[in-house]
Amino acid sequence: MSLLNRSYPLLRNNMANVRLSAPSRCLMNTVNRLYTKEADSAEKTVFPLAHSKYESKQYKLPKWKESLGEFVIGTFRMDMDKIRAGPIAGSYYYSICKEQGLQYENEPLSESAKFFYEQLNLPRTFSEWFQITLLHEWMLFVRMRAMPFKYGRNYQQKLVDKTFTDIELRLFEEMNVKSGSIVDRYLKDFNTQMKGAIFAYDEGFFSDDATLATAVWRNLFGGRKNIDISDLEAVVKYIRSQLYVMSRMSDREFALGKFKFVPANESVKRLSAEEEKILKEQVIKKYENLEKSGVLLPSEKSNLSYTN
Amino acid sequence: MSSPVREGAKQMVRLLERMPDERIKHLVSFKQTQMDRFKRVAGLPTSSGESDTGTASVKKPTVNEIKDILNRTNGPLGMKKDMLEKLQAAIPRDQFTDESLRGQVQSMENLLSNKYKNYYDVGDKLYHPAGNPGYYQRIMNELSGQKRESFFTAMRTVFFGK
């Protein structure tokens, strides 16, 4: 228990969130049962976030600790852009990727999951969930590559690290795999899938829609023969629109975690040149004022550009 | 099979022929599998040489025949009833109507005309990303065989990441 707490505080946090909707889920093993018990005593319906108190939403860092932290960051001029990769890419961005295709048996699907499993008729399986998560992660990768190399790379690394720790735990806890060696085999397999998918999506993204559709068909649809071409078109449109939104964001906004995926049932309208200019000015003004005002704490500072 | 459906399928085959070929060989090819699929609907000869319509001497069992066999026999291969039902549910069923096919043709046209790449143009910001401007070009060069990675460039990527 304590070991789990230490190694997977963030993950736990995510999983607790998932369970919020249905406390009656029967996937619970011993660890989870312990978990529930504590939750019941704390609050009736809401699971505590992680057992690490620092993860809890109610938790407030004591003032002296906060000041000490800010002092250390300020004095040693620590690179917050680098440090922020953990909480933003590893935690926040991973959470928005994984929740897109998250589904449990006997439970109603979320809005985003409906798009994938009902509209596109994808099978409701663990590996399909992984493919959906992967697709979203790849989209983020594309944007991260446009950040300064040092930071973008770090963001990518954190996102991948988190993915595999999460999958490992899910295989043990949710899929009830008992053997560590089987889990390892799955992880290797997922790793290969990831490399292949990212390569294929990159190729499609850079060349044309037809190639991207082929990559989607091979990965997301698992090379199924009887596929509706309009489904492929829908996914290609979905991907391109998300990337468009990301491309209109500055590095600073993206690195601070201001991005979230546009729901599949909404469509993105392209900005006119004028609107784009206004948007850009607003962002620049906002961050300029913040920098000038001097209210930014050392931990909130960033060197990433807000003008691009 | 009604003739509008057949016409639609023929149109689809023509569109699929315009699909770019895959740059590397994969286990399954989208172009090929879909061509076969729609040719069968259109009644054109497929690459495997069978045609749905003609009285051609097709020796392979069709999907319907397999279904029939599964239905008639009581648990072939020693499989249980529910397993058989699952298998049947997994057998692909193409039910084309004139309308659905027209929608698919339209989608295929959109894909081939690069509609979304052009509409949602992300510009050089993402195509030549600041952190790694040559990233995509290198992949394309490698794929097209124009400029292969040398041992030196590969090692550079390993150590410096780009």
TrEMBL record, chain A:
InterPro entries (UniProt xref)? Ubiq_cyt_c_chap, Ubiqinol_cyt_c_chaperone_CPB3
Protein's GO biological process: mitochondrial respiratory chain complex III assembly; positive regulation of mitochondrial translation; protein stabilization
* An example Gene Ontology molecular-function term: mRNA binding
Q: Taking every annotated instance into account, which residue ranges of this chain make up the domain Ubiquinol-cytochrome c chaperone?
A: 118-261
Q: Name one GO cellular component term.
A: mitochondrial membrane
Looking at the UniProt entry, the stretches that span the membrane are: none
Task: Return the Pfam families for the record.
Answer: Ubiq_cyt_C_chap (PF03981)
Report the family membership: Belongs to the CBP3 family.
The molecule here is called Ubiquinol-cytochrome c chaperone domain-containing protein
Tell me which species this is from: Huiozyma naganishii (strain ATCC MYA-139 / BCRC 22969 / CBS 8797 / KCTC 17520 / NBRC 10181 / NCYC 3082 / Yp74L-3)
From TrEMBL, chain B:
Q: Which GO terms describe its biological process?
A: mitochondrial respiratory chain complex III assembly; positive regulation of mitochondrial translation; protein stabilization
Highest taxon of source: Eukaryota
Gene Ontology MF, one: ribosome binding
Q: What is this protein called?
A: Cytochrome B pre-mRNA-processing protein 6
Q: Name one GO cellular component term.
A: mitochondrial ribosome
Q: Give the species this sequence originates from.
A: Huiozyma naganishii (strain ATCC MYA-139 / BCRC 22969 / CBS 8797 / KCTC 17520 / NBRC 10181 / NCYC 3082 / Yp74L-3)
Q: Please give the PANTHER family that the UniProt record associates with this protein.
A: CYTOCHROME B PRE-MRNA-PROCESSING PROTEIN 6 (PTHR28250)
Pfam families xref list: UQCC2_CBP6
